[in-house]
Write a structure and sequence with these properties.
The complex is a heterodimer of chains A (262) and B (397). Chain A is of the alpha+beta class. Chain A has nine helices and ten strands. Chain A has two domains: 39 residues; 212 residues, Alpha-Beta Plaits, CATH 3.30.70. In chain B, helix 3 packs antiparallel against helix 7. In chain B, 48% of the residues are buried.
């Protein structure tokens, strides 16, 4: 069979269009299949929007803080980088009042409060500036429960999110983090990271999916209260309704989901 | 036309091989960074952008500055710029290439660069910056190449190129406005959170870019038989006098807002940059150097008697260029990170490998610039050359 150029181009054009259509049809089908495969397990903890309340009155000793930090960093294989503080990685850490709440310190504030350590972490903002600036959607706000997620496999390491976060909650892997993870304590169920990506607290989405509360909350002996802020009967809402609470830099309009009470 | 780039004297080849060796050294440094990660740089958790992004920011301005020549030539029919319009357009090309390379070397995961296209995110200014930069690169190659090709055939430029020229003129400010928006929309970074940022960017760009064009014109005149024209250089000098004045004024506006309002967050970065904060003062000497150069440049540019002397104009242009290079290519970016949003101070200074990589990217830019200018100047030497009236002599024979 011989075809002339005109016919060849016609066939080529039509099959290209069909090809593109076919791919997109298969893609949409595949999305549906995947969606059903990862439907949440029945015991998963669900909420409209997760929030956390840090009850400072329950942090009495050094150990109270460290227990939460260790629980978080161990379960997420956060490297312990000590050779260069510039490369430090932290998801949950201590920050004194003057640094956690800059601009709020009064002139004659007692030294005790000024240097009182507060537990700080990603605020899982309702209006996150980091998500707004990410050029690849590697960091995104999960529609179902408002967690500001981090896809470390998509992140290109441009660090725009670090410039955009007003809470310093993001860390960048300036080098391979794996040599800085204690092998004996490594959690094989959570991935380690590669160099060149940004990471931060993801509110233990992997534990919530299994019906467990975040690791820090579990380790805190009630000092960290966790729940659905859009549910009027949740524990967080009850605490916030009854006691004076404050958030980090609310004037910036990011609407943080982490609250502090004294 | 490319064949013109491989015919050159010994001086040309020495320069090309010098650039290639700088590129080679920087490439080795980059391999080291590629293997180890960005930890080989001076950047940190607190200062997460450094000289790479600073250079990118500065060079977007240089790229946009071509419009200061192209606009009067095409929109106001200012004929004196006819000779240097292509030089300005061809400066934009290596500048944008350097911008892209600086972004690339700054990436933690460079092999994932296509993720920006695979997952286009219109709400990210970074995404828009990529779009406008790529568009601007395309427009300048297209326009420069087409016009030079026409000139070579001693024919008027084809009509279809006109719309592209007008689009390029409108496009030029957009690349720098979008780059300013990378900074000016971030909550918690008071130093950058200023509505005048884009205006400052444009003013400084339209001073630093033309300053470089003048320096390049003087170099071209010195080493080739092509004369870009005394009047073109003088007019461009006037442009710089105005834009540099605006730039210094705009910086003054920032100082006023910060220090008259007395809001600590707005003052901190300025205090850190110009006097040091809580004993940290690594950037103070270079920021003062930048300020002194700015004043020197301004005085030299504003008085016509000084500006009209070409050697003094060259010095004024160099002062302008280096002043803005320090201010925008370094101080502006680092200053936004110090103090951190948690009001802690971590200082930044580029490391040796980081410097070598930076130099290599500049060398790549200069290599592309050299090749493009070699082509442009070779053609102009043949076609519009009349410095010693050789065409006339030929015609008389």
């Amino acid at each position: 069979m011989s075809i002339n150029r005109r016919e060849f181009l016609k066939i080529a054009g039509v099959s290209t269009i069909l090809g593109i259509g076919g791919v997109s049809a298969v893609n949409s089908l595949r999305n549906r299949v995947e969606a059903s495969q990862i439907s949440p397990s029945p015991e998963a903890l669900v909420a409209k929007r997760w929030a956390m309340v840090v009850d400072m009155s329950k942090f009495k000793s050094e150990e109270d803080y460290q227990r939460c930090i260790d629980a978080c960093h161990r379960v997420h294989n956060v490297p312990h980088i000590t050779d260069n503080p510039k490369h430090e990685i932290k998801w949950l850490w201590k920050e004194t009042y003057e640094h956690a709440f800059p601009g709020n310190e009064d002139e004659y504030l007692s030294e005790e409060i000024k240097h009182l350590p507060f537990l700080v972490l990603c605020n899982h903002c309702d209006n996150p500036s980091c998500v707004r600036v990410c050029p690849t959607k590697a960091t995104f706000k999960r529609k179902s429960d408002g967690i500001v997620m981090m896809d470390m496999h998509r992140c290109i390491g441009c660090r725009f999110c670090m410039a955009a976060c007003p809470y310093g909650a993001r860390s960048f892997n300036y080098k391979d983090p794996r040599p800085f993870i204690n092998e004996a304590k490594e959690n094989l169920e959570f991935p380690t990271r590669t160099k060149g990506v940004v990471e931060k607290c993801t509110l233990c989405y992997e534990r919530l999916a299994k019906g467990l509360k975040p690791a820090c909350v579990e380790a805190s002996n009630g000092a960290l209260i966790f729940g659905d802020i859009e549910d009027p009967n949740s524990e967080v809402r009850k605490v916030l309704g009854a006691r004076y609470s404050f958030r980090r830099r609310p004037e910036l309009g990011t609407r943080p989901s982490v609250y502090y009470i004294f | 036309m490319l064949e013109k780039a491989i015919k050159g004297g010994s001086r040309y080849w020495v320069w090309v091989f010098f650039l290639l060796s700088v590129i080679g050294i920087g490439f080795i440094a980059y391999l080291y960074q590629f293997k180890y990660g960005l930890g080989i740089t001076g950047m940190s958790r607190d200062v997460s952008w450094g000289i790479y992004i600073g250079q990118f920011t500065f060079l977007v301005g240089v790229a946009a500055a071509a419009v200061m020549v192209v606009l009067p030539y095409y929109l106001h029919n200012y004929k004196k710029y006819g000779r240097i319009a292509v030089l300005a357009e061809f400066l934009a090309v290596p500048s944008v290439i350097m911008c892209m390379l600086f972004i690339f070397v700054d990436m933690g995961q460079p092999l994932r660069v296509l993720n920006v296209l695979l997952h286009p995110t219109p709400n990210s200014v970074m995404f828009f910056d990529m779009v406008v930069l790529a568009g601007y690169l395309f427009l300048n190659i297209l326009v420069g190449w087409t016009i030079l090709g026409a000139e070579r055939k001693e024919a008027p430029p084809p009509k279809w190129i006109k719309p592209f020229i007008y689009i390029a003129i409108a496009w030029a400010p957009s690349i720098h406005i979008v780059t300013a928006f990378l900074y000016a929309g971030l909550p918690g970074r008071h130093f950058w959170l200023t509505a005048i940022m884009a205006a400052r960017f444009l003013a400084s760009a339209f001073a630093a870019g033309p300053a470089l064009i003048i320096i390049l014109c003087l170099i071209v005149r010195r080493f080739t038989k092509f004369d870009p024209g005394k009047e073109a250089i003088q007019t461009l000098g006037k442009t710089i006098a105005y834009t540099m004045t605006l730039n210094v004024l705009f910086l003054g506006f920032e100082f006023f807002t910060a220090f008259y309002s007395q809001i600590p967050g707005h003052m901190h970065s300025f205090v850190y940059l110009y006097t040091g904060l809580h004993g940290y003062s690594q950037l103070v000497p270079i920021m003062w150097l930048s300020s002194i150069l700015a004043v020197v440049a301004l005085v030299m540019l504003v008085f016509p008697q000084i500006r009209k002397n070409e050697s003094l104009l060259a010095i004024a242009c160099m002062a302008t260029f280096f002043s803005l290079w320090i201010d925008k290519g370094f101080g502006l970016v680092v200053g936004g990170f110090v103090p951190s949003p948690l009001e802690k101070i971590t200082e930044y200074w580029p490391t040796l490998p980081e410097t070598l990589i930076t130099l290599a990217v500049w060398a790549i830019g200069f290599l592309v610039l050299t090749i493009l200018y070699k082509i442009a100047v070779s053609i102009k030497e043949e076609v519009v050359f009349d410095k010693y009236g050789e065409k006339q002599i030929k015609a008389e024979r």
